[in-house]
Amino acid sequence: MGIGRREFTKLIGLALTGTIIDPLQAVVTHNEYYINKKLGIMFTIPKSWGFVKIKDFGKIKDKQILDGFYESIKNEVYEDLGSPICIVTKYYEDLPEHDGLFSPSIILKITPKSEFDSYGHKNFEELIHMSRKNDNSVLKDYKIVNIYVPYTLNNCQFFEDDSEYLFEHKELKKPIKVEQKSIKFEHQNFYYEFSCHQSLEMNEKADIEFEAFKNSIKLI
Asked: Is the pLDDT of residue 15 over 60?
């Protein structure tokens, strides 16, 4: 089955963020709890972390450098990838002391199943395999380094893998190596994807926070 650039970008874009909507306008939050009844999900975020403000994330997105040809069509790439529901990050406040720091982050993206109707896959697992097979990411030196055996949480099958890439930004003197954990599952009429980003190179490790977050996910 042949796929066009828009479909291909969706498949390879699992390591990239897009624009966001303000999560506080659509959900209930209390301390570390995040509840989205409309989308049927709740979870807890790491203590002292917070949601990225739209204006702050826009600065990051606009100054991020994509790999090769994709940098010249950056606006189209972001449009094709769609919009995450929210982003949670360690250094969420726009403070001078946070300038130049890499901030471990968790990004939630939810896509209606209907958007993939033309792909010809039999089930979600096959769609995951298509995604991994076509991975040639818009991020520099992107590669999958570990694929976990699927497991069950909340009566749903979860698919998890680890990858790494170089994060390039106009305000950075050199690229930063970033490790990403991707967690995907389907629930009701949507495909869910959490991508968790950390950087061992910058001494910004969040494995413990990511594991606690994953175990807190509840589907409602």
From this structure: no
Flag whether the pTM goes above 0.85: no
Rounded Cα distance between 55 and 65, Å, is 18
Q: Kindly give, in sequence order, each residue whose CB lies less than 8 Å from that of residue 168, ignoring residues fewer than 6 positions away.
A: 64, 65, 66, 140, 175
Query: Could you write out the three-class secondary structure of the chain?
Result: CCCCHHHHHHHHHHHCCCCCCCHHHCCEEECCEEEECCCCEEEECCCCCEECCHHHHHHHHHHEECCHHHHHHHHHHHHHHCCCCEEEECCCCCCHHHCCCCCCEEEEEEEEHHHHHHHCCCCHHHHHHHHHHCCCCCCEEEEEEEECCCEEECCEEEEEEEEEEEEEECCCCCCEEEEEEEEEEEECCEEEEEEEEEECCCCECCHHHHHHHHHHCEEC
Q: What is the pLDDT of residues 73-88, one digit of tens each?
A: 445 545 544 556 778 9
pLDDT in tens, 129-183: 887 765 556 678 889 999 999 999 888 999 999 999 888 766 677 888 999 999 9
Distance of CA 70 to the CA centre of its chain: 18
CATH number of 5-219: 3.40.1000.10
pLDDT-above-90 percentage for the chain: 29
Separation CA 109–CA 96 (nearest Å): 29
Parse the chain into domains and list their residue ranges.
Answer: 5-219
Higher pLDDT, 206 or 28: 206
Cα torsion through 23, 25, 31, 36, rounded to 10: -70
